[in-house]
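User: I'm new to structure prediction. If I give you an amino acid sequence, what do you actually give back? Let's try with this one:
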Amino acid sequence: MLEKISLSALTEDRQKKISVLIIIGMLFLLVWAIFFVVAEVYQDIFILKTKKNISSFSIMDTASLSDLSSTHLFGDASNLPITSLQLRLLGVIKSDSDENSKVIISEANQPGKVYSKGKMLPSGVIVYDISNEGVILKNNGRFEKLPLARSPLLFQDAPRAMEMP
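Assistant: Good question. You get back a string of structure tokens that encode the predicted 3D arrangement of the chain. For your 165 residues, that looks like this:
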């Protein structure tokens, strides 16, 4: 025997299903909104930390190498450890103004690239200061030096005058 289903019972069943779907959809939207709010808060915290680090860096950045070593913030530059990173200082162009001073640094035996004071290398190390002798790097909050490798000059004996016949 076939039973007849009333139209009102069918409609109530559909209304319940639609209500459940609406509630599930609203819960999904709520979870999605909470996720993005939390992600935005974490991003803001990260940006604030980064700005704080950059602002403290720029304050320290205004002092020259001689000023820093004389104020004993990290001691004499010659006492800094030499970096253990795979970096090679290929050249230094030292100017009276810090923004015009440049260095050429090779990272992991790659071709050298030009950096200025305050710039970050791909490894995350920051060029903190530039001197004629090398570079001071800021590596995870620690100062390290990268000296300019100089090959010793070899002089030959002075040329002798040619004898005339």
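You can read the tokens as a compact description of the fold. Here is one thing that stands out. Confidence is low (pLDDT under 50) at residues 52-75.
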